């Protein structure tokens, strides 16, 4: 709950209004039965003037209570919505500062549920809190005192009812608490399954996996349903039980009053307000129980959000480092790397130097560590040992802006965001002009299809870039990578969906138009890097060869083997 303090602190004025209005509302609820008793007494005493007078007071108090209730509902909702929005923004901002490793630690699905469903739970708790927190103790204590003052002889009815309601509330809500905790985990599971299935819908359909996927989803969904139904059952048991207890208390009170009304005629007027107070006591306990359950559920969510907010990013940039224009050299100095939590190193003692303007190919079998090496140049991870430097500066001493300006990384899987093509390209260069876009699109061989759209760079990119082919997405990703003319450009298997001719044209354009840029080309096929100035050969995390295609054919067994296998494959194809 400490987590919420600064968030609530921003809305002190609204909180004050919500608390005052709920107190007025509770006061009005407590006062009304007393006035009703007065009306009844006046009728019994046949004093019509008094009936009208108290009746008017009753109406005024009821209207005040109603207005206070409406004001409370508005302000409680306002505080809850604002706190939830602030919390969601803080969580989102925090996630943006996370490194790859931090995001992997939580998983994307888990973070999304924390940002949406958990924040929603906190919103409900805050709203319930401001509607019930003050009202509940006021109603409970006030109604208890007033009931005892109204018919002191019936103290035992009140005590019996309170004990019964308390026992049932504690029993049922203590069972509900853990169920609410389980719901969060199950929502996460069903969300993840649905997301995975829909994102991979083509695979599901082409492998005829609809039935299996449906069964997997149904199992998780049924579990969630089972927990929700159990909570529903518990609610459906307690409500009639409370009604029964209330009715019994009323019946006993009426019976008692019936026995004594002959000697004490005032009791007739008192019994109605007494019954009203009994109901208010019962409501206070029920609201209290519900609030505690929501608090238990909210506490789980607050803890989950707190875990995100208190996570210190495992990789930070040196904010003190000056802005600098890094040169295009890249130095790996005895670099080894293990993924967080893994035992085995994925890169082992790698050292090499790339000169500014060179085109460097990186080849190696699947899983040999090519992408991992590229990620270290873009500082998506830090090396476990050794140093990576760009332009002669250790990346740990470079601020984020300078690094991003110097290094552009075009990922293996092209990702575009919904918006326009231009919006996506401006991620590479915020102030990119149409001429910049055209130039970059020419290099990436994207211009020919972009120009076919009437609205060219203003053409819409749909969600998950569904309206572009794999090759088009790759070309636009390369366009975004080259638009700011980076000093170092990494193409991680980024031309795999391009035909051989387009791939060749991209490489030629890069060579010609980005002459000063150091380009790393990661490729499965040696033919993609055959003309590179230098090729690095990775094998099981080790740098086992370095040189031109010709040199490697002469002195690297691993390279020769890969080349021979690929050539044989080409012949077979
Ligand atoms: N995020 C990760 N967490 C843990 N291990 C990882 C992660 N990413 C990759 N690995 C492991 O690191 C090793 C190297 O992977 P990497 O992606 O660098 O290889 P690669 O040579 O680029 O492969 P490919 O050609 O198939 O893309 C693999 O064994 C892989 O299982």
- Most strands sheet: 6 strands, mixed
Radius of gyration: 35 Å
What is the typical, i.e. mean, pLDDT?
A: 88
User: How many beta strands in the DSSP annotation?
Assistant: 12
List keywords for this structure.
single chain, 573 residues, alpha/beta, ABC transporter transmembrane region fold, Rossmann fold, six-stranded mixed β-sheet, binds adenosine-5'-triphosphate, ATP hydrolysis activity, transport, transmembrane
Structure in words:
The chain crosses the membrane at residues 12-31, 54-75, 124-148, 154-173, 231-257, 277-296. The protein is of the alpha/beta class and 573 residues long. The protein has 2 domains: 2-309, Up-down Bundle (ABC transporter transmembrane region fold); 330-411 and 486-572, 3-Layer(aba) Sandwich (Rossmann fold), CATH 3.40.50. It has 19 helices and 12 strands. α2 packs antiparallel against α10 (267-309). The protein starts with a helix and ends with a helix.
């Amino acid at each position: 709950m400490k987590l919420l303090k600064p968030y609530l602190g921003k809305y002190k004025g609204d909180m004050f209004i919500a608390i005052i209005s709920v107190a007025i509302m509770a006061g009005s609820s407590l006062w009304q039965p007393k006035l009703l008793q007065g009306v009844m007494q006046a009728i019994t005493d046949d004093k019509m003037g008094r009936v009208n007078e108290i009746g008017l007071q009753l109406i005024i108090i009821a209207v005040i209570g109603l207005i206070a209730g409406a004001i409370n509902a508005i302000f409680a909702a306002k505080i809850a919505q604002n706190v939830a929005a602030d919390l969601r923004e803080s969580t989102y901002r925090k996630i943006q500062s996370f490194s790859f490793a931090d995001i992997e630690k939580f998983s994307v699905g888990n973070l999304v549920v924390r940002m949406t469903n958990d924040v929603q739970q906190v919103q409900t708790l805050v709203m319930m809190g401001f509607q019930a927190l003050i009202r509940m103790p006021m109603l409970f204590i006030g109604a208890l005192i007033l009931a005892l003052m109204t018919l002191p002889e019936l103290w035992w009815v009140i005590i019996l009812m309170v004990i019964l309601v308390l026992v049932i509330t504690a029993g049922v809500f203590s069972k509900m608490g853990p169920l609410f905790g389980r719901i969060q985990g199950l929502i996460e599971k069903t969300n993840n399954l649905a997301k995975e299935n829909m994102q991979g819908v083509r695979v599901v359909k082409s492998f005829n996996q609809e039935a299996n996927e449906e069964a997997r989803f149904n199992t998780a969904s049924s579990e969630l349903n089972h927990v929700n139904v159990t909570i529903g059952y518990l609610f459906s048991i307690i409500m009639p039980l409370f009604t029964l207890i209330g009715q019994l208390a009323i019946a006993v009170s009426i019976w008692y009053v019936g026995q004594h009304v002959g000697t004490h005629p005032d009791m007739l007027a008192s019994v109605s307000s007494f019954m009203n107070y009994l109901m208010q006591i019962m409501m206070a306990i029920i609201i209290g129980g519900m609030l505690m359950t929501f608090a238990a559920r909210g506490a789980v969510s607050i803890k989950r959000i707190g875990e995100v907010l208190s996570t210190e990013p495992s990789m930070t940039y040196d904010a003190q480092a000056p802005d600098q224009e890094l040169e295009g050299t890249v130095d790996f100095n005895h670099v080894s790397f293990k993924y967080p939590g893994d035992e085995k190193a994925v890169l082992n003692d790698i050292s090499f130097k790339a000169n500014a303007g060179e085109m460097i190919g990186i080849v190696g079998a699947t899983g040999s560590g090519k992408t991992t090496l590229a990620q270290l140049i873009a500082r998506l991870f830090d090396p476990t040992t050794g140093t990576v430097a760009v332009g002669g500066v250790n990346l740990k001493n470079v601020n984020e802006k300078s690094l991003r300006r110097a290094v552009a990384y075009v990922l293996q899987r092209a990702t575009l965001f919904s918006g326009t093509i231009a919006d996506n390209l401006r991620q590479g260069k915020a102030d990119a002009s149409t001429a910049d876009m055209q130039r970059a699109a020419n290099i990436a061989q994207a211009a020919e299809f972009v120009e076919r759209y009437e609205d060219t760079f203003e053409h819409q990119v749909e969600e998950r870039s569904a309206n572009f082919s794999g090759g088009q997405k790759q070309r636009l990703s390369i366009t975004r990578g080259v638009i700011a003319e980076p000093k170092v450009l990494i193409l991680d298997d980024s031309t795999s969906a391009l035909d051989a001719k387009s791939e060749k044209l991209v490489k030629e354009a890069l060579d010609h138009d980005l002459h000063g840029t150091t380009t790393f080309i990661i490729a499965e096929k040696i033919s993609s890097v055959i003309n590179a100035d230098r090729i690095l050969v990775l094998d099981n995390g080790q740098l086992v060869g370095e040189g031109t295609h010709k040199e490697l054919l002469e002195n690297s067994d691993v390279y020769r083997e890969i080349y021979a296998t690929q050539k044989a494959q080409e012949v077979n194809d």
